[in-house]
From TrEMBL, chain A:
InterPro entries: ATP-dep_Glu-Cys_Ligase-2, CP_ATPgrasp_2, UCP005522. This is Circularly permuted ATP-grasp type 2 domain-containing protein. Residues 94-470 form the Circularly permuted ATP-grasp type domain. Pfam families: CP_ATPgrasp_2. Residues 479-502 are annotated as: Disordered.
From TrEMBL, chain B:
InterPro entries: ATP-dep_Glu-Cys_Ligase-2, DUF403. This is DUF403 domain-containing protein. It comes from the Bacteria. Transmembrane segments: none annotated.
Amino acid sequence: MSQQSQSQTQSAPHPQSALAGYDTGGFFDELVLQGGQSRPDSTALINLINGLAPGELFRRQNAIEKALYQMGITFTVYSDDAGTEKIMPFDILPRIVPSILWRHIDAGLRQRIKALNMFLSDIYSKQEIVNDGILPRELIDSAPTFLPQCMGLKPFNDVWCHVTGTDLVRDDTGAFYVLEDNLRCPSGASYVMQNRFLMKKNFPQAFQSSQVRPVNDYPARLYQMLREMAPPTVDDPKVVVLTPGMYNSAYYEHSFFAQQMGIELVEGRDLIVEKDFVYMRTTDGLQRVDMIYRRVDDIFLDPEVFRSDSMLGVAGLMRAYRAGNVSLANAPGTGVADDKVIYAYVPDMIEYYLGEKQILPNVPTYVCLREDEREHVLKNMDQLVIKAANESGGYGILIGPHATDAERKDFADQIRKNPRNFVAQPTLSLSRAPTVFGDKIEGRHVDLRPYILCGKDDVWVMPGGLTRVALRKGSLVVNSSQGGGSKDTWVSAEPGQTIAEV
Amino acid sequence: MLSRVAESIYWMSRQVERAENLARFLEVTHNLILDQPEDLVDPWAPLIQVTADQKKFDERFKVMDVESVTHFLAFDDTYSNSMISNLWHARENARSVRESLSSETFEQLNEFYYFVRDSAASASQLSHTDFFDSVRRFAIRWTGVLDSTMSRNMGWHFANVGRLLERADKTSRILDVKYFNILPQLDDVGTAVDDLQWSALLSAISGFEPYRSMHRLIRVPTVVEFFLFNSTFPRSVLFCIDGACESLLKIGSMSSDDSDHHALELACELQVRLSSADVDEVLDQGMHEFIDKTQTDINDIGIAMNQDFFHSAVTT
């Protein structure tokens, strides 16, 4: 906890304050203690809320949503009419993480990404972790995300995951767990930038007195990292962002980062491979490309190697990659470590490759492939969260306590039919954070996705991240495709650390 | 610059200009009927004729009147050349090249599109005067934002070429349509009505005041000259082609590729033809034919842009 916050005193909530009568509901709350007192690092913010005139929060919330719409900060929803754009709902109450906790998260994430990169180098070459009996071969052989086309690939400096967006959750004791690693082009970092921009504009005083660490250097760091991970033979590497196009749900983010980094946003049709080098088509003829920050999924990258019907990729890209003439961030093939069953083995990987104990624990996970664990899962479906191995975005999940008998039966059948494809975890009572609904503030469940950059010799963890919030009352699903919103995340600075300027 | 990006910027700019000019077409016609006696020529039919989409109009409407024509040209999102469709396409193009535009440029276009979309939704309660007034302001703001927030890099020059080619084409069309509309009433030449009509026509290209300060008297040859051959007024055809030549020259000098640029060549030829034309001769030999030829030339420059820079299938 920072010294600044200790010196502040807390004012009692005004009887008309939006926080009056706020109930933590027995959950771990990110800003408020049981009984309504603020947590030490949240004092400035809570005081501000208590001091606001009635209706003021609501007014600011509205103003921000309007600004998001005007700025065209939207994502595309697949299930709606083609190309429907929505703003990602944004809650103006930030989530605050004390510096001491952040030190723990930072160390845990660095350790984890190191082990995961080593795992990927191993699994696409000698597979020692399998040969040594740590990871069952059957898991690799049956993982659709394991790409045999990537065997023998050697990304520069053995970095496979240049950009990672790990999902963290807290339980009712406030302990942090890693929920998912997201090693395949994780999205959302642009929302962190925009959320911060809006918060500074709307709550400058509370922001300043909370001593928040900056996140705005992320695009600059991303660009620096991409440059240094280009083929080492190139002096002044040309870096581009590869997008599936404007109808992709994360298109805004792709164009945002291209713009922030000042580099070209290309689509597959803009690129061509000649003699194992990648070029883009310009008004000036062909121009060479050295590093591709690709936001296109593995299997669409190169119709010569992966899905032959892909219109999003570039024929010959993998040839150029294998020849060492272009870098891809992230490397193809990383998805195998995202498999929710293989996830269960990450603590073993950390021990195997680093000889260390995990700093940030996994959520306890039952692997249905193991008979005894499967039986346990089938008997306790009403208490567990059951996940299919290779779905994301909140799809393919059964939340046992909230499911109907029919839904549970359907999942039970699927588990028996294909046990390899399922894991189960206890239903965590996820932590909550105060969230604005009209003139009221209510607690809603949140998670946290910090972003991690892996460079040549350094790992950088963004001090902050995307706090996603399940806006529906009682819901545990935070995904934007399923009614989730986001909040700014304020990580308190330790003495001596850089503080964000308003 | 990526060929795809250059092409999208070029079209984005053309489409906004096209939407703006549709508003100008409609606005001038709205103003004309306010000023003219009731038995004068039907002002609405030529607006549809000039689009060459008569059939599409007939599929949707039985009568050609202020309501149907305004709806068709401004708000019909099933008609691909309406204002709202053009702005939608422009916004889609802008979205696809957002990283190459200034944030303000995108936001301005975003707002412009939403304004027209929301107006379309409440079209029945709309005051046409207010609507066209707002559109004109949006369009001027768009031009200002584009010019004051973007570097004069290739992207801006492609936007500028798109904007000027479209504007040159539309200025010539406004003149062409209205000339037919006004001139057949030979009895009216020199009367107050005629003066009002020509004034409204000049207003359609925001040219009433500049024309007055240059020529004061309204005479057919000087109005035609103002529309086609004025080298100082920003919506005159010659001024637009001058600007397009300049931008094409700049694009050429920014390229390291030394292959011939056909678009520049064609634009320069057109510039010479316009600047050496004599308005009396043009009127004698048929203004409509002259404008027709000019439009063909502008179209050819567009086709050459495609071959020189975009390297894709021809789009219109």
